[in-house]
Amino acid sequence: MHLFLALFILAVNPSICKGKDEKKCDVVPKNNYIEVGSDINITCLTCGHGKIYWTLDTSRLNSSHTVLSLRNFTHQSATVQCHSTDSQQVIGGTTINTYSKPCNISCILHQLNQTTEGQPVVFTCKWDHRIDPKLDVNYTVLHSSAQREICKTRETTCMVEGVIKSMLPVIIITVRAKTTNWEVDSDTREFPPAHIRKMIPPHLSVTSFADHLLVEWKRELIKQKCRCEVKYNETKLNKALKREEHGNMTIEQVESCSHYTVSVRCALLEPAPWSDWSQEKTVLTELNKNRVRLRLWRKVAEPQKNGVRKVHAMWKEIPSTCRGTFTYTIEPTPYKESMMRGGNYTETLCGESGCDVEVNQDAHRINLNMFHNEILLVVNAVHVPAIGESLPQVTDIQTSALEGVILVTWKAPIQPVSGYMIDWTHDGNQYNWKETNYTNATLSGLLDKKPYNVTVTPLFVDKTGHGTQALQICSRVGGPGNVTIHINKTNAKNALVSWDVKSQEECSGDVVKYIVFYRKLDRLELWLNVTAIGTEQAISLEDLLPDTQYVFYVKATAATGTTKSTEMFFKTKRFGRWFITTLVVCGGVVIILVLSLGLGCAISWKKFREKPVPNPGCSSLALWPPREEGTGSIWQFNNPSESVCDRVYTEESQKTSTSPLGSGLNPNPAFYQTDEYIDPDMASAPETDPEERLKPAKMQHRSSPNDSIEPLLPENSPCSPYRSQTSAENPGKRPNKQNKHSPVKQPDRKTPVMVYVTLDMFEQNQCR
């Protein structure tokens, strides 16, 4: 028993000792929360892993010590890990989170009702806190050194009423932020009540006059100095006030018949906050008769045949906001008479901003009278030179445009001038004009991309010179205009495309070059381009693939911009023009050959159809005389002048005639010697009807031994190619044996045999 107990103790004791001496491999401390900008030390328990290194998130730190010191740590959240250098394994790690304290604390003392004067009873503070918005933070506002809580909130603002007294010499404020993991206090702020007191808005009144505005306001009665700020339209004016002093201010240089909006705010001396702006007051100024400037000017048209000229007088109208009734009249007066101040001339009632009158070729003075409520208010005049009058004018007028503004320069005349009048128009109806004392002017407020005509006229004391008009210039030049593309012709390997450029704007840039972009329809990324020569508006796209779809567009480039056309598709042909031409030529040749062959066949067939067909009914029967030895078997049948019915040799006539074969022909008698079978029935048959004569001619093909074949006509005369047909005696029946030629000697005299010769089988009455 004791032995067993001793063995058990020895077995358990090493395990206990091992667990006691074994160290845990990790990084401490864990999941820290520190204030932004503070320091922290982190320790790595290596457990004998040898050398180590540290990483901050994914960056390796330059430290191999087991204790890592991080100074001025500003990361919002970061992971720090300890690694073994030998095994590259992570020994341990920790997460460091930071927090910040509330800052930029501002507080004010004010009235809850901004229209009631008295001691402020509301205390409001605001602050900033840079934290994760997802965090749930509780804020507490602490007052004075005793850290008395005056407000709790989860927002970065806090308002309390009746807690802070404005009579205190100083107000001490601290803001505390707290979460489940950390707690931090802001820096303490001290606020003198006079520096944080907000005044109520002043009570404002505004009075308008013809040449100024009178602004008056009543501020909150505080026995302290204050400053106030007056705002009208876009202008602000400041004024300092003494203790318990109300404010007033005069605004000069106001426009006649114009609306002005005025408001005021006040504050104690800096750094006290401004009060809210007072309620705005809007007033309309009166018409200032001393500052009415009509800015009268005129445009003189070309004279008519009778010397009468049309003068368009124009002036700046009185604003419609001016109260009262305004009327205008124009009175043209000859210049010489106007200088003598005599005579009455007809006045023309005009509109509010322009009027047309006619004058002759002499110099005139155009007088403009403006009446306000039927009382003459303003008189203005402008000079119109006489036709051909020698007056100075400006020279070398130059214009240029930049970003919608036209700059005009010119050279002054030799004579001294009092100024220059520049007028400009884009349509000849609406004019703008301005006066200057310099030899340059800038024209602004122009319509975009419109051409303008600019005229400069020198002014003298009581006259005007001749105007000089500059070349037409555009306020701004646009792009080249819209590009419309066309497909003129497509072949197998090229395509002819063209385009037109039409601009809907009057001022479009001149095209410098055209670039045609094209590609295969299935190759979206590969664009090819070719540039047209000069400003040509057509080009041939070469080296295309047959039977392939392409897409193309044209980009027109000018000095002022570029314009791109819409895309258009086309497809090249399967075969080229040379192939089609060759095919057409070969096809044409084949067609011509076929037509020629057909025409020849038709002509031959027609001739064949028109050739007379022999009629057996017109035949006759006669004997053919036997041939003599030495006669030939060939004769001429080519005498077309002799009719086939001219000569018929009957059996009787042939007996007495001399054979024409006796001379000239020496046939081989052995060649023509035959041995034939003669049917005795055919020899004794009676003479048949002429219509029946055709039958034996068709049935009997073999001739008897006594047949004789002689030429019907002499050798030297034309002959008929037919044989005489008649009946003959059949000597009797002979054995039916095959004909054979035997080279035996021809006997001296041949017995006539029956043969069939067609004399005339044409349907002609002369044959019978």
TrEMBL record:
Record InterPro entries: FN3_dom, FN3_sf, Ig-like_fold
SMART domains to which the protein is assigned, alphabetical: FN3 (SM00060)
Biased amino acid composition, Polar residues: 717-729
Entry GO CC: external side of plasma membrane
Signal peptide: 1-19
Keywords: Glycoprotein, Membrane, Receptor, Signal, Transmembrane, Transmembrane helix
Sample GO molecular function, one term: cytokine receptor activity
PROSITE patterns: FN3
Annotated Fibronectin type-III domain residues: 479-575
Pfam families reported in the protein's UniProt record: fn3
Region of interest: Disordered: 646-752
Bilayer topology term: Single-pass type I membrane protein
PANTHER family, per the entry: CYTOKINE RECEPTOR (PTHR23037), GRANULOCYTE COLONY-STIMULATING FACTOR RECEPTOR (PTHR23037:SF38)
Protein name as catalogued: Fibronectin type-III domain-containing protein
